């Protein structure tokens, strides 16, 4: 797919990350943001209903993120039933990040992780001193995510990524080879994320796309030249 040139004058947008960066580079930045912020709202599912709480995430020397909980808490029970969490929060004032992650419980026999984790959390050791065996540590194993920056009046930049064998979530709207190059989507894209390629067809630069669907409503060949994941 054709790409428009990167505007390097916007190098401070989204911490300088663009679609030229690898997914691993994006993941590293996201993990660093979580490490530095520490507490993030974390959602699970409980009997078909969403539940949310603040969880403290710690990065260990291996560059991975870990958290702990008590085996006596509903959070632990929910993780045992479905070891998947969603982290979503604002970062600073105009940034946000979202992760959908499968987590892995770390056995106590993995002493390196336990030792390193509780070096960072000596208060937790004291808190559970009456029965430390009730503590459980989890690792963010694999998943996908997105970072987002509202950097000017209604101007956005986003990047999606996957890690640990997860699959990157595709954007909702995409243009197919059936595009005739009429330009309706491009003319109506408020973010300027759509451009005309040398082949006379339109293309979306997803890092500038708001995923709003205006292009789909204006495409005369919606459903063929432009498709939506929301439509069966």
- Give the helix tally: 6
- Give me the Rg, rounded: 21 Å
Order of H and E elements:
HEEEEHEEHHEEEHEEHE
The CATH superfamily of the largest domain bears the name Electron Transport, Fmn-binding Protein, Chain A
How much is the average pLDDT?
93
The CATH C-level class name of the largest domain = Mainly Beta
* Helix content class: 10-25%
What is the total tally of β strands?
12
Q: How many domain modules?
A: 2
What shape does the CA trace take? elongated
Question: Do you know the CATH architecture of the largest domain?
Answer: Roll
Distance between the termini: 25 Å
> Would you give the CATH topology of the largest domain?
Pnp Oxidase, Chain A
Strand content: 35-45%
Structural class computed from helices and strand pairing: alpha+beta
Verbal overview:
With 232 residues, the chain is of the alpha+beta class. The protein has two domains: 8-163, Pnp Oxidase, Chain A; 173-228, 2-Layer Sandwich (Alpha-Beta Plaits), CATH 3.30.70. It is built from six helices and twelve strands. The strands form three sheets. Strands 1, 2, 3, 4, 5, 6, 7 and 8 form an eight-stranded antiparallel β-sheet that branches. It has a two-stranded antiparallel sheet with strand order 9-12. Strands 10-11 form a two-stranded antiparallel ribbon. A hairpin with a 3-residue loop joins β5 (84-91) and β6. The longest helix has 15 residues, at 23-37. The chain is elongated. The model is unreliable at 1-8 (pLDDT under 50).
Considering the chains and any ligands shown, give keywords for the structure:
232 residues, alpha+beta, Pnp Oxidase, Chain A, Alpha-Beta Plaits, 2 domains, eight-stranded antiparallel beta sheet, two-stranded antiparallel sheet, 36% strand
